[in-house]
Amino acid sequence: MNPQTISPAAAPASSARAGSASRAYLNLIGGRWVPAKSGKTTENKNPARPDDLIGTFPDSGLDDVNDAVRAAQAAFASWRLVPAPRRAEVILRAAEILRERKEELARAMTREMGKVLAETRGDVQEAIDMAYYIGAEGRRLFGVTVPSELPNKFAMSIRQPLGVCGLITPWNFPMAIPSWKIFPALVSGNTVVIKPATDTPASAHHLVEILAEAGAPEGVVNIVHGGGNAVGVPLTTHPDVKMISFTGSSEVGKAIAERCGPTLKRVSLELGGKNAQIVMEDADLDLALEGALWGAFGTTGQRCTATSRLIVARPVHDEMVRRLAERASQLRLGDGLEPESEVGPVINTGARDRIHSYVQIGQKEGAKLVAGGSAADEGSLGQGAFYRPTIFDGVTPTMTIAREEIFGPVLSVLTVDSLEEAIRVLNDTPYGLSSSIYTRDVNRAMRAVRDIEAGITYVNGPTIGAEVQLPFGGVKETGNGHREGGPTVIDAFTEWKSVYIDYSGKLQKAQIDR
Ligand code: UN1
After folding, report:
1. Is 173 near ligand 1, meaning CB less than 6 Å away?
2. pLDDT-based confidence at 2, cuts 50/70/90?
3. Choosing from 165, 304, 405, 484, which is the catalytic residue?
4. Which atom of ligand 1 lies at the shortest distance from residue 303's CA?
5. Centroid of ligand 1 to alpha carbon of 304 (angstroms)
6. Strand 494-502 relative to strand 153-161: parallel, antiparallel, unpaired?
7. What average pLDDT score do residues 380-403 get?
8. Is the pTM of this model over 0.85?
9. CB-CB neighbours of 209 under 10 Å
10. Using CA atoms, how far apart are residues 48 and 352, in angstroms rounded to an integer?
11. Region 369-375: what's the mean pLDDT?
């Protein structure tokens, strides 16, 4: 392919817009929309209404992965030579299409994933934000120029793409997270094969379809639907895949890192969290209450950044817990497409049952249930995967519900007697993604910013709500040191090359000629 001619991948023949009908979705490989080679498909249904079939998706395997990697590898030869500002134009065009279709895409995402419409609009908005942010990066991709120690010699470092990147994305931000990975990969000159979560394949499909429409050349963006073992594993072990970017659980992240070891692939991991919000006795309690409700029960508690622990100073504990329990019990559960719904279903009935088993463990270990604690089954909720916003009081740092990521609407309240104890309790977890402190005392806020072990700390804001132009990621078992978002995401998707240009016309010996 001539790098000067960007011919868009063909759109699918049956390109029904993201709507309410059920549809047969396909993989995109080398610019062609194709079924799984085996011909097998799987169904995906609405978690609020299990009789609502969203569509059938290819149940792909090794052969499909191999085809996709081959197509991506072939496309890399010319995509890497397209000037970065022109690569970025594809992403900026995608931003325009996303903006035009935001409402329709959000509705399709709520139908597929369950979270309420305001939040799926936010999810599409996050993809739009990332497209504009990273699109502009096409005219930066800064390297560094430094002086050489020798005369008449020039030294600089430039960024180079890695090659084919394998992207494995979760269901909780079905468009935002694919966009965090696909856009920076492409602007840097890589080609991609994405395997989206099996619970949210349509949202990732819509993003990929938009990129094709925006002019991504054949083979630059490929999507292969299917399960972790059948598609994810061959992608991570494929010798021609140079990098894996994964968002999901720490358990799966560790398995992926091991599989990537033998081929020394770069692996960028965005994993679990056990995020906490501290509320000091001098905090604005109304604000802290709103923050905790949004952080714990927004997205039905299914964010990596969700608040799953509330660490409260003893003097304000009783008031905080009483008001929180009251407000949590009043939250309206329902189909996210209904305007009055405040909390949607969890992703599927398996997740609902797993969340409930944590609640049972919490009760057995002696925590005090003050709100929720069961699946919601009144009226039409009984058909869907709904779980009541749940709060445990009297939680101690060693209890299971204070330690393990539950990934659902369950908040554990712990009580402390000082800022030092609050920070110690907050840090007492294997994870380190997001954190928050509510205080009016700047000295306490600054000590928390310094001493909390987490990739993100909010002061007087909840643990959720990261913006795309800042690094996103965590410490300890939340990741392996890479960051998404911000200028840092480019580091994950590029290799540095140092270039020395000697214009002295003679052999000069570094470290020796002085
Ligand atoms: C996630 O839960 O994996 O900061 C991502 C937030 C969102 C992104 C969450 N902007 O809560």
Report:
1. yes
2. very low
3. 304
4. 2
5. 6
6. antiparallel
7. 96
8. yes
9. 23
10. 12
11. 98
